Amino acid sequence: MADPRIIDLRSDTVTLPSDAMRRAIAEAPVGDDVFGEDPSVLRLEAMAAERTGKEAAVFVASGTMSNLVAIMSHCDRGDEAIAGSEAHILHYEVAGAAAVAGVQLRAATNDARGRFDIDEVAALVRGQNVHFPRTALLCLENTQNRCGGAVIPVEHVEDLAALAHAHGVRVHIDGARIFNAAVAAGMPVADLAASADSIGFCLSKGLGAPVGSVLCGPAAFIARARKMRKMLGGGMRQAGIIAAAGVYALDHMVDRLADDHDNAQALARGLAELPMIDLDPASVETNIVIFRVRGDWLDFARGLKESGVLASVYGERTLRMVTHYGIGRADVDEALARVRHAAAALA
Ligand code: TLP
Questions:
Q1: pTM of the full structure
Q2: Mean pLDDT throughout 31-59?
Q3: What is the Å distance from ligand 1's center to 93 Cα?
Q4: Does 109 have pLDDT greater than 50?
Q5: Across the chain, where does the E strand assignment appear?
Q6: Structural domains in the chain plus CATH codes
Q7: CB-ligand 1 contact for 192 (6 Å cutoff)
Q8: Gap from CA of 181 to ligand 1 centroid (Å)
């Protein structure tokens, strides 16, 4: 192979901290965050609350912890939470809502663009009956990962939130990639999140930080979330070492997400030219490209991997490629050349 570089498109979680981010980490003022004394964590939490337009915020270890802490803080044991049929919370969080929070998840159908049918959601909200759990929470996801990084439009979020609130149901957004949604929609995160009660976002995906997520919401909710985080063992001491990377990311890594979206679009257009790939480039709004493979898909996936192009398997015949900070346009072009080669080898 002429170019032996690995082109890692498995996820934007593989991003490595830049030299400037590493310097910010090295120089971070720190203290004991369980005592509320870590200046870098306090700064990150203040910035996160401000960016999301919420009263307060709490720094947590991961997106999964952010969602679990949110569910534990909004719900009591025996409550029910509605989540999308394609939600990360439902598919990839080890059933933490059930196993740890004691909360039953109920799926509402996500369409191909990650949206809900409002009537279906309305019908899923439980009425008063001695047999029923209380519907306490509606969980949205923006961007919607399994729906190809789709941006959920603010009007749809507002409609769902109005429905939920009319029934006393709170709304949480899994905003792991909300900054991608904001950049794609040309709209502040605070606007996208305004009708929701809480939102969590990840620093360790497209924003390029090594660790961490921030959960944001009303002050009383965040006070409870802080206790839940402690209960889960997530009270970290000199956490400013990692929070400093998050501060740097919010200051320097948001606007460049547009490059990842452009690269994903170039990748999608190249992939869609291949007869064995089923993909509409117009469906790619952010940095996630999900496509179906016709014919011998397992051999195709193997060929890709052997050529040094790493993708994730997202189901039968379905692969996902994600662009990120570590991937430039030359990498996209090289990946496409190798994809064409893997496809030709099968033809
Ligand atoms: N998603 C990962 C995998 O788990 C699939 C990825 O590579 O995309 N919400 C959403 C929408 C996510 O996509 C993820 C990570 C999480 C939450 C969880 O974040 P972490 O990995 O920090 O626990």
A1: 0.97
A2: 98
A3: 9
A4: yes
A5: 7-8, 56-60, 80-84, 104-108, 135-141, 170-175, 198-202, 213-217, 277-278, 288-293, 309-310, 312-315, 318-322
A6: 19-252 (3.40.640.10), 256-346 (3.90.1150.10)
A7: no
A8: 15
